[in-house]
Amino acid sequence: MLPSPESLLQLLQRFIKSSTQIKQIHSVLITNGNLSIPNPSSFRWTTTLFYNTLIRAYLNINLPHTTLLLFTHMLSHNIPPNAHTFPSLAKAAACNKTPSFIDKPLYSQALKRGVLADPFVQTSFICLYAESGNVCCARKVFDEMPEPCVVSYNAMLDGFCKNGDMGSAVLFFESMPVKDVYSWTSVVNGYVKKECYDSAFRSFKRMIMQRVSGGCAVKPNEATFVSVLSACANSNRVTGLSYGKQIHGYIVKNEDRISAFVGTALINMYGKTDGLEYATKVFGSMVNKQVCTWNTMISTLASNGKEKQALEMFNKMKVEGRVPNDVTFVAVLAACARAELVKPGLHVFNSMLPRFGIVPKMEHYGCVVDLLGRAGFLAEAEEFMRKMSFEPDASVLGALLGACKLHGAVDIGSEVAKRLYRLEPQQCGQYILLSSIYAGVDNWEHATSLRNVMVDAGFQKPPAYSTVNAL
Asked: I need a labelling partner for 297 at 20 to 30 A (CA). Which of 24, 133, 397, 413 fits?
């Protein structure tokens, strides 16, 4: 006896986030013909409901392409989409590598089906247009909403911030009738992305001062803290450390506990602002440490000259049962490269696939080339690069060229530089490095020749800057 459509729908809704069950139920629905023939008029929307649930299910298991493909099947079988179909489709389209190719055709379908009056559909298209960089269309959709809610306002505000239009974002933010934590966080995060760190600090301070002064009480959430701590980590070290300590104090005073992600952001901030001691204390006080927390602590130790401690932390991570990921190995290999720990570094690299099932990526190969090159094993680094299963990119070649400069290896450096020219003919870095290599061995003729080539080609070295004036 075939299962009824109702029971299949219930099963699908029950296992809405389970990949295996979703695919099994989808197969049964195809076999039974539930997805190809519209149901009788009394159950007109049943087939649409099947498609809507499948579309949402595949989106939940991170298969946006399948979600969009289902919609094309839906249309080809003359199954009418409704207002519940489009929000999931808009999210799937936003996940696409080129959402700008999909946003307008999808919007046209929603217009054709007469569902654009639904605020959920309108808000989903604001998000999609913002993701594709089409802020004008997003604003047009927003302006057509008769009574936008705070969620729609936040979607439009986030669109301005994501696309770097902070001028419009601030004007829009000030015009909002209601501002919640997501509104404030979008502004803080927008300033961080634009590297306007002082503005991010001011926005955060204004947010918490409103709460303190009895204004419209908005409490910062995890995302707010992570954003503003990122501003501290990337700004001037002295200013960043000062603001970071104040924010840390606010978190301790106002939060019941430090979450894994806020703790990780604190460790990263202290690690980048010469506050290694504080970073270590935060790490030690955390009850819930995620893999990203361990990764950040390993990177922090390595970047602050504690490479051996970074390796010890990696071993401690494994002892405590945490499974390292590919980011962990980048951090550990970078630590080995900094300290020229060739043997431990190669051991770590060689354990990635057989022990942890992690296939080395370009970043891992680049770290090993850097490790061998810094330690003076230039021939071994070149041989290692030659044995890679894919062509090395500019980062890997650049690591070897940097090592050639360090050790004055003219011949290998010349060959590596030629390969870099072919990969990135418009970048001036390889010219400068090779010129420095020639100058280092007193080959001034070749050094001058390369500098002249740069001038003739119109290349300009980016101007250097100093943080001394900020101290």
From this structure: 397
